[in-house]
Automatic annotation (TrEMBL):
It comes from the Eukaryota. It comes from Penicillium cinerascens. GO terms for cellular component: cytosol. This is Flavoprotein-like protein. InterPro entries: Flavoprotein-like_sf (IPR029039), FMN_Rdtase-like_dom (IPR005025), NAD(P)H-dep_reductase (IPR050712). Residues 11-166 form the NADPH-dependent FMN reductase-like domain.
Amino acid sequence: MSTSPSKKAFRVGVICGSQRKPRVGDQITNFILETVQPHSNSARATGERDLSFDFDYIDISALDLPFYDEPGIPSKITPPEGYAHEHTRKWSQRVAALDAFIVVTPQYNWGIPAGLKNAIDYLYHEWKGKPAIIVSYGGHGGGKAAAALRVCLAGGLGMQIGDKMVVNLTFPSRDALYTAAQGQHLGLDAAKEGGMWSSERTRITSSWDEMVGMLVSEGVAKAA
Ligand SMILES: Cc1cc2nc3c(=O)[nH]c(=O)nc-3n(C[C@H](O)[C@H](O)[C@H](O)COP(=O)(O)O)c2cc1C
């Protein structure tokens, strides 16, 4: 985060939590990013404050993290030197550099994908206290996965998740669910009125606005 009193630059990690191939998680994560990115510079989002945002797109499948193999417990480790493995140090540095997160997750058997949970569990201090938006998707919006993730992030890691910062996206028809299950093209377009989930964009940008409010008040608290 910038220390300049006039200009504040924040870095936001946008996490695609689905790993399988083919999948729709990447399409949905792009849809979220393309909804949030233009909004993030608007007066509504910034309150006309001098804020800027950089985004780091994190594809869990591209991290190549093995199943948790650190000998220690992350909450007891001083990052990044305290980690035994280079893959953990790299992941630690990437997450530590970020101020906030949007975590996009499918619902797998009422939970979140194992790869996403594995990547989260590797670290502790790098997540702690930071704001996070949860976006889940599924036949009924993936609410069970979102709830499980909320317990993990807010309870386990002390992350800040406000009332508007959980968005559940329901596949609008059985056809759409089958298309998703096959990892085929959903035709999402963040700029198109009347397209799939275009009516969800206000909920997505509202979640962003709540997160920005947290980032700004956190910055004020740190400066005070
Ligand atoms: C292992 C697995 C478990 C699933 N469990 C659920 C579930 O509990 N609820 C649901 O609505 N959909 C479930 N689905 C269907 C997913 O919503 C759908 O396949 C979606 O495309 C998964 O996201 P992805 O393509 O990004 O992996 C499941 C899919 C998989 C692969």
